[in-house]
Amino acid sequence: MVSILPHLRGFSRAELTDLFAGLGEPRFRADQLFRGLHGRRLMSFEEMTDLSKVLRERLNETAATATLRVESKYISEDGTRRFLMRTADGNPVETVFIPTENRDTICFSSQSGCPLKCDFCLTAKLGLLRNLTAGEIVEQITIVLNDVYGVGGETPHGTNLVAMGEGEPFLNFDNLIKALEIMSDEHGLHIVPGRVTVSTAGVVPKIHEFAKLERRPNLAISLSAPEDRLRDKLMPINKRWPIDELLSAAKVFERTLKRGERFTFEYVLLGGVNDTDEHAEQLAALLRRHDLRKVKINLIPHNPAEQLDYRPSTPERVRRFKQVLESLGVDAYIRTPRGRDIFAACGQLAAKQEPNLVQIAGL
Ligand code: SF4
Questions:
Q1: How far apart are CA 353 and CA 70, in angstroms?
Q2: What is the residue-wise DSSP string for 166-221?
Q3: Which of 26, 86, 192, 243 has the least CB density, counted as fewest CB within 10 Å?
Q4: 265: Cβ–Cβ under 8 A, 6 or more apart, which residues?
């Protein structure tokens, strides 16, 4: 039977305090539970032996600490790990751990599947299965941290988070923001907003809402085309919120940035489709027209897949595209694809189970 118990990993410390007050338990017990769930990253009430046995049993009957099941885990030649998990009602959730020398990044999902139909993305083929709850969002990251560093183990480089897995984060706005708030708590995972980047395909009203948040993560906007006709095809969300509307919202966001802060446009480079010198020139002109100055462009070579009609741009083309942008005063960076061999790279998350890949048993 599917668990419908409240998922306590999605409760803030204040909410746990209220819940415990209702159970006649003092506040410090709620703090202990919060630390157990997030600071010590424990996955069951039984492990929280600082709570009385009676209380643990009572909680066990009325609430859940974990609802996801890890179905498989794949490790790439480059150290990237892809986790395919299932919600209690059987929907896929994918999370990717990307190690680099000085920092580790976890790319997490905000939805199971995705309703947007970006033409170059495998996740789009799943359609939207459902929004993830705040508890499920926090849990997937906790599972990955425990897998990499051991239960409750120190994270040597700190952790960066990117909401770039399955789903459009701004279509699950409230749960996403709640999960990020919980994860930023210093008594828990303590992943502060400055270490988090939320990537949107361009849900304009939510960019405005996001701009008003007091403690807010970094923003990335996936653009991938410099003019409406092409973007309509590549990212159909453009028909709803065309480029000018999107970039006007980006400008509003830009005005809220503090000194030294910047935000990102992502541009997936598709061979022969959006990667010519003219496209780069159009892109630079577009940013100028909207007076966007605090931006950088991340160039993402497309990650090919059998079901997708696109091929990646050649490395020379990618370099040239960057050069053209830079010659026009736009900062551009080439993102190295990670975990392509295990279907963990950008746009490749589609709950793929691949018997030939290295699958680590025991999870
Ligand atoms: S690129 Fe992102 S927003 Fe577009 S379909 Fe894929 S997961 Fe959804």
A1: 12
A2: SS-GGGGHHHHHHHHHHHH-TTTT---GGGEEEEES--HHHHHHHHH-SS--EEEE
A3: 26
A4: 220, 221, 222, 223, 250, 295, 296, 297, 298
CB 144 within 8 A of CB 95: yes
Q: Are 321 and 299 in contact (CB under 8 A)?
A: yes
Distance CA 49, CA 202 (A): 46
Measured in angstroms, how far is the CA atom of residue 118 from the centroid of ligand 1?
6
pLDDT digits (tens, 9 = 90+) for 252-273: 999 999 998 999 999 999 999 9
Name the closest-CA residue to atom 4, ligand 1: 118
Q: How many angstroms separate the CA atoms of 151 and 215, rounded? A: 28
Alpha-carbon distances of 99 from 30, 64, 103, 348, rounded to whole Å: 34, 30, 7, 18
Q: 42 CA distance to ligand 1 centroid (A)?
A: 32
Q: Which of 129, 168, 343 to mutate to test the pocket of ligand 1 (most atoms within 8 A of CB)?
A: 168
How many angstroms separate the alpha carbon of residue 303 from the centre of ligand 1?
Answer: 13
Return the DSSP state at 267.
E
For 115, counting Cβ atoms within 10 Å of its Cβ (0-12 exposed, 13-18 middle, 19+ buried), the class is middle
* Residue 115 CA, closest ligand 1 atom number: 8
Element (H, E) at 103: none
Q: Which atom of ligand 1 is nearest to the CA of 122?
A: 6
- pLDDT, tens only, 113-141: 999 999 999 888 889 999 999 999 999 99
Residues with CB under 6 A from ligand 1: 114, 116, 118, 121, 123-124, 166-168, 201, 347
Which numbered atom of ligand 1 lies nearest the CA of 222?
A: 1
